[in-house]
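The passage that follows is intended for readers who have already worked through the single-chain material. We present the inputs for a multi-component assembly, then the predicted structure in tokenized form, and finally a short commentary. You are encouraged to pause after the input and sketch how you expect the pieces to fit together before reading on.
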Amino acid sequence: MENRPLEYDYTVAKMFMLTTIVLGIVGMTIGVFIAFELAFPGLNTVLGSGLAEYTNFSRLRPLHTDSVAFGFTVSGIFATWFYVGQRVLKVSMAESKFLMFIGKLQFWLYVIGVAAAVVTLFMGYTTSKEYAEFEWPIDIAIVIVWVLWGVSIFGLIGIRREKSLYISIWYYIATFLGVAMLYLFNNMEIPTMLATSAAGETNIGDWFHSISMYAGTNDALVQWWYGHNAVAFVFTVPIIAMIYYFLPKESGQAIYSYKLSLLSFWGLMFVYLWAGGHHLLYSTVPDWMQTMGSIFSVILILPSWGSAINMLLTMKGEWQQVAASPLIKFMVLASTFYMFSTLEGPIQAIKSVNAIAHFTDWIVGHVHDGTLGWVGFMIIAALYHMAPRVFKRELYSKSLMAAQFWIQTLGIVLYFTSMWIAGITQGMMWRAHDEFGNLAYSFMDTVDVLHPYYALRGTGGLLYLIGFFMFAYNIYKTMSSRPVEESELQNASPMGA
Amino acid sequence: MDFNEFAAYAYFFLVVFLVVVTYSYVYHLYTKRKDSSGVDYEHYSNMALKDDIGDTPVKPVSKSEEK
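Having made your guess, compare it with the prediction:
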């Protein structure tokens, strides 16, 4: 074995590719189901009223958000890290038994953590903090998984051959540090077994229950500092890490401006952390803090568009590749949706616009054009690029990929357009009043009006889910398609008809 | 000067300071074009484009790695 040339080792990357796809299917299936529940409330008791506890919207909604964010997306982040990290640092996981062990340990602990989260959320155990619903034992497991990932990142950096860190590595490091800080502070909680109530009771509730260390307005502030920056450091920063590697690599084009990538990085890091206050406009937090949240949200357009334009300009003179390759289509549209949702977000954060948008479906639409169009498309593209390289086989079907692209794009368009109309209609109806100040409409009036848009939204989600199944099938079939030579894997991924 | 007034001035000067820092960084990047070790920033794109394990690093960790 002495003379065998050194190769990158994608064992751990492949493991996380599997969880990306499986948890994507789980999260998106639940998402589509609960979307139809909103349109057709009878679905809440589809398995009978005895089991309604497990099928109602409120029980399933955190399962949807957590499995797409912390399941699908975080798995995608890990999978791409264990692929990109090795390649741009020019060091193989096979060179360190320790890092290989840590990577596998991280995977299995992650799987255990995910299983525990899914089971407990299904059973209704929750801390009731949005995107932070897990009880404290699961929080601790997540922290351990995260620390192990940190060991992998800095361990691999420690044994690298390439001295400089490629821009994607900066973004992965930022993801690691950002999420670590946010998760720890937002999940500060006291197990109820250690607490004493005002009436002097001790040992309250089950051992795994806890209460947050924050209350009232402080809780809201910490929660939205966390909630908004979870969008930053789970849905934005690591996805930029991906596109800065996969788009240049797949197209064979150098990044349009590496300098702009550095500038955008620091811009994003500084500005993003201050924007969370826009979730609390017109609430009890101090007015200056709301204004600051609005202003920083608007400034955020600059670094966001800096990255997105950099990606689109990377394709300068090479636009025929967009027409020719469905894989490049996914990334160019991801970048476009990134521009789109980073313009939409700041608009919604302006106080006067927010007066209409707050609490409406427009917000839901905004989140989904970002997650389906930007996050989902980029992770799908990354896995499509990785598959031929980790399996050493050509992608099973180009035409299936192209069909998936168009079906999912149509799904996204249906999703956000229906939510725009629904949201603005809702916002206007809630505010409407007669000349004496009486509200013109009851809540049920809005529900009646919104029904067709909810049905359309469910249909959009269903199309996206169908596309995701096509993606899973394409990757599955790739594992047994035509073997390829190393020389075929330089840039454009080899694809079967 | 009460605290709020102080905070307002501090905020204003902080924003001015950060704008100056940002534009200085832009000026630095585009006039120097190369980092302290003499590598043109734009060459760093090759870390992604030439990323086979046998490819020559843009900036090797040790001189012995250079081919």
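Commentary: Residues 363 and 478 of chain A are 37 Å apart (CA to CA). Residues 216-251 of chain A form the longest helix (36 residues). How closely did your sketch match?
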